[in-house]
Amino acid sequence: MKNLFKIAMTICLVFVSLIKINAQKKRNMENTALLIIDVQNDYFKGGNMELIGYEAAGKNTKQVLEYFRAKNLPVIHIKHIATQEGATFFLPNTSGAEINSVVAPKEGEKIITKNYPNSFRETELLSYLQSKGIKNLVITGMMTDVCVDATVRAAMDLGFSNTVIGDAVATRDRELYGKTVTASDINRSYLAGMTALGNLYAKVVTTKEFLK
Predict the structure, then answer these.
(1) The 75-80 sheet, strands edge to edge
(2) CA-to-CA distance for 4 and 25, rounded, in angstroms?
């Protein structure tokens, strides 16, 4: 009887703990928004700046987007329009600058246009997030080492708590000192940098981990 009582008590405690964890997660998500950065046609096959790993990043972003939609949580699409002289992609009034169909915005989802890597610079992003009481951001998008990184670091400086979906970002190979730095190495390095000093800039998780 004593063993049965202990087992029953253990089950009850586990059950209560799960309820508390789920309740806490729900509370945390109440002031959380999804930020999808620059998932635009020029980064996909045939675009003017095709990335490495765009397909996987796009599919994983879609999964996270569907989760937010199912939970009726805020979704913000960031769309870059290049205005600087000599720009070769995301040009105004081109199909390459349009948001890719894999994450096409639905009615009611916020779209914010930017002209700089930092999504907060000279945009309404900060005021919009503040108006919605958003304190936590879940971030996906492209390119990892440019607009995603710039936005994550700016968000931290502005007081937001960030989670980056590490397999829902993409970039391309770079060259430094005459040697190629692969997109894979860049992704790992930049994501690792975000987690420095105890996730100072962002917590980085996989799509699977986030959707658990």
Answers:
(1) 110-114, 75-80, 32-37, 136-142, 161-170, 203-205
(2) 32
pLDDT digits (tens, 9 = 90+) for 37-57: 999 999 999 999 999 999 999
Radius of gyration of the chain (CA): 20
- CB–CB of 152/196 below 8 Å? no
Q: What is the pTM of this model?
A: 0.87
Q: Which residues are catalytic?
A: 38, 114, 147
- Pair 79, 40: CB distance under 8 Å: yes
User: Residue 210 carries which DSSP code?
Assistant: H
Of the candidates 173, 206, 169, the residue with the CA atom closest to the CA atom of residue 36: 169
* Residue among 185, 143, 146, 140 nearest 166 (CA): 140
Tokens read off for 53:
């790993």
CA angle 103, 109, 111 (to 5 degrees): 80
**Alpha helices (H) in 52-182, listed in sequence order:** 54-70, 125-131, 149-157
* Strand residues in the chain grouped as ranges (E): 32-37, 75-80, 110-114, 136-142, 161-170, 174-176, 179-181, 203-205
Instruction: Give residue-wise pLDDT tens across range 113-158.
Output: 999 999 999 999 999 999 999 999 999 999 999 999 999 999 999 9
Nearest to 147 by CA among 104, 91, 90, 108: 90
